Amino acid sequence: MTAPIPQSATLASRNFNLFLNRIIHAFASHWLLLFNILMGVYVWLPWLAPVFMKLGWASAGNLIYSIYSTQCHQLPERSYFLFGDKFMYSLADVQAAWRNTNQPFILRQFTGNDTMGWKVAWSDRMISMYTTIFFVGVLHGAIRKWLRPMPLWAFVVSTLPMAIDGGTHLISDLAGIGNGFRDSNAWLALLTNNAFAPLFYAGDAVGSFNWWMRLISGIIFGVGIVWLAYPHLEDAFSEVVHDIESKFHRAGLKT
Q: Quick one: 174 exposed, middle or buried, by C-beta within 10 A (0-12, 13-18, 19+)?
């Protein structure tokens, strides 16, 4: 014959379930705030790497570079720099300051110096994409009541600019950084009959075609991610909140 469960154990289990439901209710009620805080830390932490390097806190700065190196190529000619003469440097500038190489695995190791400043811990494309996710996520708090999810087909379309731009960069880089068709963009100069300044076509500097494409495609992708996912998350967490509140109401308890 099974021994009866002590009343104290039953009460402890009930109290634990109440505590757990209150935690879930609190998370589900404030999920957007928590998401935005976490995304804010994730988005702005790479900007601290050059700050730490400038302050002489190399260990802290290199730790951030190491963490974000798993998620980004960190090529210096496609990254922003702080505390230097320029916000972005050309491949030739980096090669002169670092090593005369076209190998991405060597180039990405250059984080900066006292003269050029220090690079942000991820590339300009990653910045445009994740910063957009952060700001649109904050904006979602104001429009969440009426915003419906982006149709899946529209989200797929929103990924195409990044897929095309990133894919052509990847193919171009197979010829060696600085030697591919996306480095000179001679094809674009031909298509536009050299209507723009030479610096628009070549390289990755701010204002160049490559820079504009990484900026725009990152923004479009970031908007698409939030517009697709956040309304679905809103519906799911709202249902969780409603179910827990209904359960507590039937039991005569407050959440």
A: exposed
Within-domain flag for 92 = yes
- Domain range spanning residue 140? 27-250
Instruction: Report if residue 17 sits inside a domain.
Output: no
Nearest Cα to 176, choosing from 87, 101, 80?
101
d(CA 130, CA 44): 10
CA distance 120 to 76: 9
Residue 10 placed within a domain: no
Dist CA 210 CA 184 (whole Å): 10
- Give which of 177, 164, 163, 173 is closest to 110, Cα–Cα: 177
pLDDT in tens, 176-212: 898 999 999 999 999 999 999 999 999 999 999 999 9
Residue segments in the chain with a per-residue pLDDT below the cut of 70: 1-9
CA-based nearest residue to 20, from 252, 240, 249: 240
pTM: 0.89
CB within 8 Å of 224: residues ≥ 6 apart: 150, 154, 155, 158, 159
Assigned domain for 255 exists? no
